[in-house]
Write a structure and sequence with these properties.
The protein has helices at about 15-25, 40-45, 55-65, 80-85, 85-110, 140-160, 185-195, 215-225, 250-260, 270-275, 285-290, 300-310, and strands at about 5, 30-35, 50, 70-75, 110-115, 115, 130, 165, 165-170, 170-175, 200, 210-215, 240, 245, 265, 280-285. It is α/β, with parallel strands linked by helices. The chain folds into two domains: about 5-170 and about 215-240, Rossmann fold, CATH 3.40.50.720; about 170-215 and about 245-285 and about 295-315, UDP-galactose 4-epimerase, domain 1. The strands form five sheets. It has a six-stranded parallel sheet with strand order 3-2-1-4-5-8, with helices on both faces. Strands 6-9-13 form a three-stranded parallel sheet.
C-alpha cells in the first residue's frame, strides 16, 4: 500500500482509520473521502480530503486516477437500524457503492478492503462459536447487503484476480465518534450517560449477549489484514474477528465499578432487539488468527477503563493495559 483512498472517512470506522493510516504511511498518501460537506478539521488539515458519494462512479474514478490510488478501504455504508428503516437507500448505497468501487479497482488494479459484519449471518446461523464457514441467511437489509458484498468481493477475486480482503466486524465501540444508527449503539451511549450522571434506558434486553470490539482493535484488524501476505490468505472475504462478548447488564456492571451510583433500565426497542437476536453471540475467529495472526488487544474490563479515561480524563479510570483475549 502506497496511496490509499478511504471512502466513508467521516464515519465511525473511517474517522479513526484515516489518522491511523496517515501516521503509518504519511498524511499526503492517504486520501479521505466522505459524504459530509464539511469534514472534521483533523481530517481536512492532515491530508487530502474529497467529498464523494460512492454511488457516483465517475467521481470515484476521477479521485482514484488523479491521486494514483493503489488501495481502497471502502467503508461507506448505511448501518443496521438505519438500513432497516430505509431499505431502498441502503441497497443503493451499500451495494451500488461497492459495485462502483470494485469496478474502478478492477480497471485501475487497486486492492480493496470491504468490512462485513456479524449482520451477514442470521437467525439460522449457530449463535455460539459461529464458524468461519456456515449458513448465512440474514433477515435484514443491512445483513443482505453485507453477505452480498462478501460474495461480490469473492467473485471479483476469482473472476478478475482482484486483491479483495475483508473482515466480519462485531459491534464496535468508539470513544471518538458518536453512534451512527447501529444495533449496538447502546454500548457507546451508555458511557456518555454514566459520565454525565444520568440514568440510562437501554433499548436491548439485559441478557442480549453479542460479540463486540473496541475501535483500536478494529483499526488494527483492517490494517493487519491488508498488510498480510496474500499467499497465506484462504478466506479473504470475510474473516470472523472478535474480541469480547457481553450483554448490556454485564457492561453496566463493569461501568458501575468505576462510576458508583450509575443506574440502568431496559426499555426494549422491538426492531433493534429482533436484529440483535438474529446475530451471533460469539464468533469463532480461529481462521483469522491462523492465516494472518489476528490478536485483539482489549477485553471488556480494559475497554471500559480506557473508554472512561478517553471520555472523561478521570485519573481513576486510567488507560487500560490492553490484554489479549
Amino acid at each position: 500500500m502506497k496511496k490509499i483512498l478511504i471512502t466513508g472517512a467521516t464515519g465511525q470506522i473511517g474517522s479513526e482509520l484515516t489518522p491511523a493510516l496517515r501516521d503509518r504511511y504519511g498524511g499526503t498518501n492517504i486520501v479521505a473521502a466522505g459524504y459530509r460537506r464539511v469534514p472534521d478539521p483533523e481530517l481536512a488539515e492532515a491530508g487530502p480530503f474529497c467529498r464523494l458519494d460512492v454511488r457516483d462512479a465517475a467521481a470515484l474514478r476521477e479521485i482514484v486516477t488523479a491521486h494514483g490510488i493503489d488501495t481502497i478501504f471502502h467503508l461507506a455504508s448505511l448501518l443496521s437500524a438505519v438500513a432497516e428503516d430505509k431499505p431502498q437507500l441502503a441497497w443503493d448505497v451499500n451495494m451500488n457503492g461497492l459495485w462502483n468501487v470494485l469496478e474502478v479497482a478492477r480497471s485501475t488494479n487497486c486492492s480493496v478492503f470491504f468490512p462485513s459484519s456479524i449482520g451477514a449471518f442470521g437467525p439460522l446461523t449457530p449463535p455460539d462459536n459461529t464458524p468461519q464457514d456456515t449458513i448465512q441467511h440474514p433477515n435484514t437489509m443491512y445483513g443482505i447487503t453485507k453477505v452480498s458484498g462478501e460474495l461480490l468481493c469473492d467473485y471479483y477475486h476469482t473472476k478478475f484476480g482482484l486483491d479483495t480482503r475483508g473482515v466480519r466486524y462485531p459491534g464496535l465501540i468508539s470513544s471518538k465518534t458518536p453512534p451512527g444508527g447501529g444495533t449496538t449503539d447502546y454500548a457507546v451511549e451508555i458511557f456518555h450517560a454514566a459520565l454525565a450522571g444520568r440514568h440510562y434506558d437501554c433499548y436491548l434486553a439485559a441478557d442480549t449477549r453479542l460479540d463486540m470490539m473496541y475501535m483500536p482493535d478494529a483499526i488494527q484488524a483492517a490494517i493487519s489484514l491488508m498488510e498480510a501476505d496474500a499467499a497465506k490468505l484462504v478466506h479473504r472475504n470475510a474473516y470472523n474477528v472478535t474480541a469480547m462478548s457481553f450483554a448490556p447488564r454485564d457492561l453496566a456492571a463493569e461501568i458501575s465499578r468505576h462510576v458508583p451510583g450509575f443506574t440502568i433500565d431496559y426499555r426494549v426497542d422491538p426492531l433493534r432487539q429482533a436484529i440483535a437476536e438474529s446475530w451471533p453471540r460469539h464468533m469463532d475467529d480461529s481462521a483469522a488468527r491462523r492465516e494472518w495472526g489476528w490478536r485483539p488487544a482489549y477485553d471488556m474490563p480494559d475497554m471500559v477503563q480506557d473508554m472512561l479515561f478517553q471520555l472523561s480524563g478521570a485519573e481513576e479510570a486510567g488507560p487500560g493495559a490492553g490484554h489479549a483475549t
